[in-house]
Specification:
With about 260 residues, the protein is an alpha/beta fold. The protein folds into two domains: about 10-95 and about 225-260, 3-Layer(aba) Sandwich (D-Maltodextrin-Binding Protein, domain 2); about 95-220, D-Maltodextrin-Binding Protein, domain 2 (3-Layer(aba) Sandwich), CATH 3.40.190. It is about 25% helix and about 30% strand. Strands 1, 4, 5, 6, 7, 9, 10, 11, 12, 14 and 15 form an eleven-stranded mixed sheet that branches. A two-stranded antiparallel ribbon has the order 2-3. α1 links the parallel β4 (about 25-30) and β5 (about 50-55). The chain is elongated and about 60 Å long.
């Protein structure tokens, strides 16, 4: 299977030879970069029955637009649909993901509170010494406008339109790489995307895990959403892939991707 970070295509499932979009036996998905890992798991596990599933990691806002403009069968959003979007689109929760605050591995901080996050990202705290760390300036890293991760982070921490970012990056991977390379940086990312190049902080004393996301004790979380047209039926191929992704059969693969399956 071919699964790359940009414009990924995988050969996938279902012996039904129905058409989707312009190509027979194909499904186009487009959107959230944070959903890369879970989409990879779903596509791989769905593989083998004659439908090509393409995943274009363009960001949540772009994925929603792609469905509205008819360029994608299924949009992928790492935020809930807004009221205006719900007039033309349907959002179906696939899973729930923890957003984690990450710092460089040399940072001494272990936990951060909602208020501290707010003070950092709105510029009230500008030096790590104010949080018990080194006497060094805080470098704020975030995602670009339209990112579902950014929307989720800013909504939960009450920092929407108030963050003083040093850098606004276009993918989760870029955030992790940048924080890993800068001792003074702080950023946020999907839990499923983090690796050992950064340190994950507990949030209000709670560690992000499947259990704490499911029982809602970890508060910095957001949904992974499949976005489809409201007044237009999906092609049979796209419906087959959607139904599979929401089925009990797919749930172990969603868990393996590091997120919590929604109870649809």
């Amino acid at each position: 299977m071919k699964f790359k970070k940009t414009f990924l295509t995988a050969v996938c499932a279902c012996a039904m030879g129905f058409s989707s979009m312009a190509n027979a036996g194909s499904v186009i998905t487009d959107g959230s970069t944070s959903m890369e890992k879970v989409m990879g798991m779903l596509i791989e596990s769905f593989e083998g029955n004659g439908i090509d599933v393409t995943y274009n990691p363009t960001g949540s806002g772009s994925g929603i637009t792609a469905v509205l403009e008819g360029r994608a069968d299924i949009g992928l959003s790492s935020r809930a649909l807004k009221a205006q979007e719900q007039e033309k689109l349907v959002g179906t929760d696939l899973a729930y993901d923890a957003i984690v605050v990450v710092v460089n591995k040399n940072n001494s901080l272990a936990n951060i509170t909602t208020e501290q996050v707010k003070d950092l990202y709105t510029g009230k705290i500008t030096n790590w010494k104010d949080l018990g760390g080194a006497d060094a300036p805080v470098v704020l890293i975030g995602r670009e406008a339209g990112s579902g991760t950014r929307d989720g982070f800013e909504s939960v921490t009450d920092t929407k339109n108030a963050c003083k970012y040093r850098q606004e990056l276009t993918s989760t991977g870029d955030v992790i790489t940048t924080v890993g390379q800068n001792e003074n940086a702080v950023g946020y990312a999907s839990l499923s995307a983090v690796n050992d190049t950064v340190k994950v902080l507990t949030f209000n004393g709670v560690e992000a895990s499947e259990a704490t996301v499911l029982d809602k004790t970890y508060k910095l979380q957001r949904p992974f959403v499949f976005v489809t047209p409201k007044n237009k039926a999906l092609s049979k191929d796209a419906q087959t892939f959607l139904d599979y992704s929401l089925s009990d059969e797919a749930k172990p693969f969603i868990v393996k991707a590091g997120v919590v399956p929604a109870k649809n």
